[in-house]
Amino acid sequence: MGKKKTQQPSNDLLTTLGDFTSKENWDSFFTIRGTDDSFEWYAEWPQLRDSLLPLLQQQPSPSSSSLQILVPGCGNSRLSEHLYDAGFQDVTNIDFSKVVISDMLRRNVRDRPNMRWRVMDMTQMQFMNDTFDVVLDKGGLDALMEKELGPKLGNQYLSEVKRVLKPRGKFICLTLAESHILGLLFPKFRFGWNVSLYALPMEPSSKPDFQTFMVVAEKENSSELHQIMSSFTHSSLGCNKLQASGLHEALENENRIRGEYLSGSDILYSLEDLQLGAKGDLTKLSPGRRVQLTLGEQGDSRFSYKAVLLDAKQEAGPFSFHCGVFIVPKTRAHEWLFSSEEGQWQVVESSKAARLIMVLLGTIHANADMEDIQKDLSPLVKPLAPSDIDKGDRIPFMTASDGIKQRDIVYQGSSSLTGPIVVEDVVYENADGDVNRSLPFRRLIFQRTEGLVQSEALLTTDGDIDKSVCETELKKANSSSKSKRRGAHRRNNVSSSKMKVYHGYLASSYHTGIISGFSLISSYLESVASTGNTVKAVVIGLGAGLLPMFLHGCMQFLQIEAVELDPIMLNLATDYFGFTQDKRLKVHIADGIQFVRDYRNLFVDGETPLHKKKDALSNGSNSSDAEGLSAGIDILIIDVNSSDSSSGMTCPAADFVEESFLRTVKDTLSEQGLFVINLVSRSPAIKDAVVSRMREVFSHLYCLQLEGEVNLVIFGLCSDTYIKEDRIPETTNRLEKLLKSKHPEIGQSIRDTAKKLKCIK
Fold first, then answer.
1. Which neighbouring-strand residues pair with 425?
2. 208 preceded by cis ω (within 30°)?
3. Where are the annotated coiled coils located (predicted)?
């Protein structure tokens, strides 16, 4: 325990106290020790008197004799007797050892007749609220806080102390101030308490020893927060260095936290802090209130949780219910939607709850199923419900679901660049549990953004599909990879080694969106295709290779180059998604940004952009030079996953939307060049910032917001030719004729999507 004993008992006696929280051990200890042999753990009366008595005399009471003092865990210490003899006669002593209470009653019944002695557990006191002016603890908390037992008993005890103290009452705790004790004590007395720390004088000693400290917490009528004041400096302490440094660190850390509270920093509150009014009256809704907190304490619940309480903004009504809980799995807790304030408000608005308690699961919850989590959380969230909710009403729990009926993991591996990677085959179901999509899909998932599906492809038995099945599938809602939530992990045998990816079907709606934007240059595409020449397209970010393979199959006039930083992705695309290379489709393992820069440097001399050189050549330069410059990029697509979720963008990486890179892109594009970027962010501010940068660079700008998704596909044009929105259906018809697809429904899907293109410059 590391406790200094000023009056050492024999070794035989100490062996009876192996567990300081055992009533039987203490009964045995006091039986052996006897009635008259008092035992002081630390702080004898001479060292304690001059510091303690002034504190008691400051209490607002008519006289010292009427000051109601409680001494919990009294043992056979003479502390109460000294108080009585000093004039404080209204003293109640409690201990859970019947032996010691009987002994102390006999010892004091004649000389101190007004002293009270009761057998009682200090963690479950049988007193009314606001009973005592002073609770005086001498080593009781320290005894409950054995490190191997955890803080449960100490936490219960301090809650009882706070309950039985009157307003303006004092909790005086004599302690060795070990770090694990102060780590509980200081946070329990934050809001509505004025805390001071004193060092008691030490007995003369030849070497540094343990020192006793006195923590004084005064109960205030308000929920104000104060810094902890101490009566000493670190250098003035005479105790051993280990005790002094531990105390100093605990005090500095607590005052730092209190300083952050006082400055309005966004830090975690405890439920007890909130119930004391740290962020206003929790029983009432306060529109726009957002509070981060912790739920659950060791011993009170199976787990502890990080949570965010959000009271919906006034304009967000009407509401479906007063209070709800939204559970976020560990794999999604880092996402912008759940980790940022802006994203959390979006969840509140969608939930239609007047108060939403968002619970962010972590590693400690990994092996618990959702039913256990909800059962554990239910009693913890009840105190957070507004008072106007019917006490009999159950608080609804919500979680995200992707409607997966079956799942089969076909690959699990890792890359030094991408991290853990999963390829899985899934079968979807609708809300009623019936299969909503008749064929399985293969999905690529990066576990660093495990809530998102990077790529998704339709599986068939022979890599082909008949028209009727494709038509049925296209009538159903397309999924949106890189914006779809994952469901709970389950292993089921849904895939077959005979099944292959079908490249004639676009499973991802954002792929359809990207291709629909080709209508903006469909006249150019048509003119090139009619002469038998090729259009150069570069796709940065291979993924599973689905977009390049679809373009390769349906637009045979394209010369496609894909750029991928991670060589493992090329292997996965080849082995699991049927990706192949030929003379019209090549892959470069390279950094995408550097690839574009190198391309510009190769084909652009000096400072004149390639598309402007081609303008000059078309106005009179010799044709052989113009042909030599025909290697300019006609279509450049950025579809790169970001490894830094803190940027607020899942796609692309932030460097791809820096103005310097955007200008490099424009310099590299041909005269009729089209720049396409798939932007995945839930932040309107981030989207606006990207659009603003692109406005500065490109002649014309269009965007496509996919319905119900976070993907925003942005198209930049180099040409000065402006295509009005009312002409887009015409240009889309021209594009549709260029598509060589077996399924007219695909062209219809692209045509319908193109109708949503909006000109923003």
1. 408, 442
2. no
3. none
End-to-end Cα spacing for the chain: 72
Helix (H, G, I), strand (E, B) or coil at 519: helix
Angle between the N-to-C axes of helices 98-108 and 23-33, in degrees from 0 to 180, rounded to the nearest 10: 40
Instruction: Identify whether the C-beta of residue 577 lies closer than 8 Å to the C-beta of residue 505.
Output: no
Spatial strand order of the sheet with 535-540 comes to 585-589, 558-564, 535-540, 633-638, 669-680, 711-717, 700-705, 758-759
Task: Kindly state the DSSP code that residue 202 receives in the 8-state scheme.
Answer: P
pTM metric for this prediction: 0.54
Task: Indicate whether 379 belongs to any domain.
Answer: yes
Distance CA 617, CA 57 (A): 98
Q: How far apart are CA 496 and CA 644, in angstroms?
A: 35
Q: What is the residue type of 592?
A: G
Which residues neighbour 469 within 8 Å (Cβ) at sequence distance 6 or greater?
Answer: 438, 439
Is residue 475 assigned to a domain?
no
Confidence of residue 259 (pLDDT cuts 50, 70, 90): confident
For residue 435, being part of any structural domain is answered with: no
CATH code of the domain containing 722: 3.40.50.150
Read off the DSSP letter of residue 315.
G
- List the structure tokens of 214: 């006195």
What is the total residue count of the chain? 761
pLDDT in tens, 151-206: 888 989 999 999 999 999 999 999 999 988 998 999 889 888 999 999 888 876 64
Q: How do residues 665-711 score in pLDDT, each as one tens digit?
A: 999 999 999 999 999 887 888 889 999 999 999 989 999 987 656 78
Last residue of a domain, one of 263, 298, 318: 263
Query: Which residue, 263, 288, 312, sits at the end of a domain?
Result: 263
CA 636 – CA 676 distance, rounded (Å): 6
Chain-centroid distance of CA 239 in Å reads 42
Q: Which residue has the tokens 């009504």?
A: 317
DSSP result, 479-512: B-TTSPPP----------TT-EE-TTS--BHHHH
* Cα 189 to Cα 184: distance, rounded to the nearest angstrom: 9
- Using CA atoms, how far apart are residues 374 and 455, in angstroms rounded to an integer? 32
76 C-beta neighbours (distance < 10 Å), count: 22
Give the least confident one: 61-70, 101-110, 188-197, 620-629: 620-629
Which range marks the domain in which residue 293 is found?
A: 270-399
How many structural domains compose the chain? 3
d(CA 560, CA 584): 6
* Rounded Cα gap, residues 241 and 126, in angstroms: 41
Lookup: tokens for 716: 């930049």
Residue 136 φ then ψ, to 5°: -110, 110
How many beta carbons lie within 10 A of that of residue 208, not counting itself? 15
Measured CA to CA, the distance from residue 457 to residue 479 in angstroms comes to 10
Task: Give CA–CA dist 677/691, Å, rounded.
Answer: 11
Residue 437 maps to a domain: no
d(CA 175, CA 158): 14
